[in-house]
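Translate sequence into structure tokens.
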Amino acid sequence: MTGIDICVRNARLRRRGDALVDVAIAGGRIVALGPALDVTAREEIDADGNLVTESYVNPHLHLCKVWTLPMMAEEALKSYRAPGMAHTASAIDLASKVKASYDASWIIPNARRAVALAALYGSTHIRAFADVDAKARLEGIKAAREERIARAAKLATDKGRPGAINPHYLMAELGKVLDDEDIIFNEGVTNAGAVLLQIPRRVPNTTMRSGGGGLGWSGGMALGAKLAAPDRLMVQISGDGGFYFGNPSSVFAVAQQYKLPIFSIVMDNSGWNAVKQSTLRVFPEGEAKSANEFEAELAPKVHFTKVGEAFGAYAEEVGDPADVTAAIARCVKEVRGGRAALLHARVTRM
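Result follows.
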């Protein structure tokens, strides 16, 4: 077998006793597993009979507290290590005094260092926390927020390419023209994170998601919200799969008949990415991946703009990142002027 990036030799696996196997890795995935594999790899690692296991998950880590031991009294550590942990409550109280010194300027670099070290030693998922109380104040949350804003900005710098607009860039440009009182109905599914990350919401209840599974809810909810709050801009954001499920002809018919202008954005990645990713999570090396057939592709040459235009809506299709800003501005102008609008954006394929 050729094209192997790494081969781990003489590895011991969980639930396999003392039997030793080789693990071949290509493209970041395990492609072969067995004793004395006949493969040529660019790099070989001799596990020498040691355990090779899956990556780790840390379900509870206070990133605001990492690397703060030097800031604590030595008595805190002694109390925590007391026999039977009899003085744990005292240790926690002593350790909490460091919160009075919390400052985002050192919390962020400490958190980055801790996450990098966790990744180095095999942790790929961390459920992180930040303390909020009278001592810690909001410094931990402030640090996390600053890091989130910086990460969002970095993701949005990549505009994508013609025919494959980066969803983060698309949503960042949308966020620049929305008011605090405008309401977003986020049915982006696998692109929902880009919506949440790139569009700041300063007013409660101005971003909505469904409370459970299912597709097709965002258009109807946007119409209902517009009926209840006619002076506010309602923005429906969905993928092409969700757009199909939402009965868009009915949505735009109601928008026209009852004068309920909403702004609909279709992030078209030509498929149900959630279906594809779910399959890969369960069968990362299965037949679907080998054949690149996930029963998740949708028609790639659809012009969703025609649906909106059939009911008098303003509609644009955008595929070039260079045209995104102006297209959004034109759509928003139409909606604020009393006419529904639909923006069909061709984003990165699934």
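Note: The chain has a mean pLDDT of 91.
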